[in-house]
Automatic annotation (TrEMBL):
SUPFAM superfamilies: MetI-like (SSF161098). Residues 93-385 form the ABC transmembrane type-1 domain. GO terms for biological process: amino acid transport. Belongs to the binding-protein-dependent transport system permease family. HisMQ subfamily. GO terms for molecular function: transmembrane transporter activity. The chain crosses the membrane at residues 26-45, 99-119, 189-205, 226-246, 266-285, 305-324, 367-388. The lineage of its organism: Bacteria, Pseudomonadati, Pseudomonadota, Betaproteobacteria, Burkholderiales. This is Amino acid ABC transporter permease. Pfam families: BPD_transp_1.
Amino acid sequence: MAHSSEQRPPAHPRTRLSWNDPKIRALVYQVIALAAVGWVAWFLISNTLNNLATRNIATGFGFLDRESGFAIGESLIAYTPADTYRRAIAVGIVNTLRVAALGIVFATVVGTLIGIARLSKNWLIAKLASIYVEVMRNVPLLLQLFFWYALITENTAGPRQALNPLPGFFISNRGVKLPWVAEAAGFDYALYGLLLALLLTLLVAHVSRKRRYQSGRGLPTGRIGVALFIALPVAGWLIGGAPTQIDVPELRGFNFVGGLTLSPEFAALLVGLVMYTAAFIAEIVRSGIQAVPKGQTEAANALGLRASLVLRLVVLPQALRIIVPPMTSQYLNLVKNSSLAVAIGYPDIVSVVNTTLNQTGQAIEGVMIIMAAYLTVSLTISVFMNWYNKHIALVER
């Protein structure tokens, strides 16, 4: 009777640690590099804390809950000198976001128009667009901000001699005053309806795109979007009581009361950022359009499409895949360039934190707050633009 021999698993070769193994060397180098970075960070932090303690300088962020004691000339949220430093810094962040958001929108529109104008067959339009791009790109932004600020403040009179081009509109060296809606729930609901309409329109566009891929027929996104943008804000306004009060500015004494104020500092900063960034965006748009193969334009012309439809339906959608990545860099530059607002007195995050650290003496914490604010905004823009770039990318089947 034959005895069956047991099947033994094959023995695995022993792993030998050898310096000749590239994986071992790579691991050792990474550990050494990580240890070096950690040691440098520990040395800098411990040395800084020791120097601060030697000079009896307080550390930490406890100062944020103390009373600020200084006024801020421009704020979208309620603020008084009796509020805390935390509230003051929040005002600075909101002011920065305000000018950055409007700057991105207007710079995109102006830059796109200038970029298309540079490709115009009209010699005068193309040359004027080229001159604009070359001048704006080669003059430092700080000088442009000084120019716009001087132009706004030095060429306008005081409130009593303010320009009044339209009823309720006043232009003076105090800024621009214009009518604005009074505080009422109906206007707030209308704003919520506007935001809801935007979200629903994006959702409809997404569903329409999926249907077009599956069946070749999409939804009338344009008409649905227009209907939503009209119906939802009006519905919110009606639900809130249909208020009709308008706050019209009036001259009382030596200044205006009521309405909405656009300060000279805000106007100069916004115009400077838009005009400067738009020049770079124009070049990005121009190069993106020129990168689209000419055969695409010729095929669209052969189908009988008008020039405007060829640009909007054929050229620009393909150019976007080239335009979006460098456009992201320009958006980030605009946000970071807004820190130059301190030069003309606009109370952005840098200006407010500078005042805070001058009063408290906690410069390191103040700089860390500024860095964290800009880093958060920049990363948010990058994430959104990367998502959009991936969304419009060509998908291989």
